[in-house]
Amino acid sequence: MRKLILIKYASEIFLKGLNKNKFEKKLQDNIKSALSDIDYEFVKDQGRWFLYSNKVEEIIERVKKVFGISEICLVTEVEADLDKIKEQALIEMKESNVRTFKVETKRANKSFDMKSMEISRDVGAYILKNIEGITVDVKNPQCVINVEIRGKAYIYSKKVKAVGGMPYKTNGKTLLMLSGGIDSPVAGYMMARRGVELNCVYYHSHPYTSERAKDKVKDLAKILKGYIGTIDLYIVPFTDIQMEIINKCREDELTIIMRRFMMRVACQIAGNKEIHSVATGESIGQVASQTMEGLVVSDDVSDRPVFRPLISMDKEDIMDIARKIGTYETSILPYEDCCTIFVPKHPKTKPRLDSIRKSESVLEIDKLVQEAIDNTELIKL
Ligand code: ATP
Ligand code: MG
Q1: For residue range 331-378, what is the model confidence (pLDDT) as tens digits?
Q2: Which residue minimizes the CA distance to atom 20 of ligand 1?
Q3: Which residues bind ATP per the record (predicted)?
């Protein structure tokens, strides 16, 4: 009797036609990296993925965070012998501690001399005989005992819901503007979950923002890294740009002009590193700069798609995801970021593109952007 896990991947991967193999291969590689320090054996059997190990619990904890996996089942392998199957099915049912069940059998090995229906009926009858007060419910059972017969027999009822999404690095690259707040780590998680390779950029306003604020962003990037393996984090010195804006532009336009500089720098880094797109944690209407007009004015200086996966989400829902993915507790630590220090009292909520372009024309835009890029630090996490 051996314990193993059965890995089920997201149904979208089945729809990939000729590309299916490419997605499967990537997913398998990603599982391998997540388990690089654990001993296990990977077996593919007629499209099913099994992992054998004596550390199944640890493996489940890790594999359930690998993007592209929808469900994990804890499976017991026994001889393909009806008595052994019945015994194990009974154990599963006792462990589940519920009142209704059904047995579902799949027989991939047609040389086994009973049909699936007969096996289910026999195993079900055995369970009913040995546990008091339980009934079969085929429509809505509390527990489904799965029996699969291949070379051996596999019995399972315990399923762990995994993270879902698409295999990491199958859908292009993005550069996430990662602040220390609640939203942007969630946005990054959502992009990565759809298979998009994540790189991060943080604008640091030393000495107005402390080293601790920078460390907080690093910590957030490390939490995201837990889902995807490695992350490149670009730290851009942003103080000179902000000082120039404060000294030369109107107070109510500070935020929007600053956001245009963030966008320009992000696009330039992305261009240099062949990253297709930029992503932010903005949500429509959340703050003064996240109005439709504000987003239009920011995007005006972008030379590539800007993705905002949180655009239609409420703060409460974003916070729920932050808690679930483990970034919330770090995000709420009280270190200021550059935006909160330079916030105007009455920011423009409906900036006009032509007037913003005119206001910032007093700045040496290209030079400021280039200096920031030249002094950018890359941290490989
Ligand atoms: P968050 O919770 O992600 O900080 P927020 O609601 O505080 O977002 P803003 O401060 O307006 O919103 O920032 C909007 C988006 O701009 C952020 O989600 C993030 O993508 C990006 N951003 C803001 N400040 C920085 C920064 N210092 N470095 C990198 N990106 C930033
Ligand atoms: Mg913020």
Answers
A1: 999 876 655 667 788 888 899 999 999 999 999 999 999 999 999 999
A2: 280
A3: 177-178, 202-203, 259, 281, 290
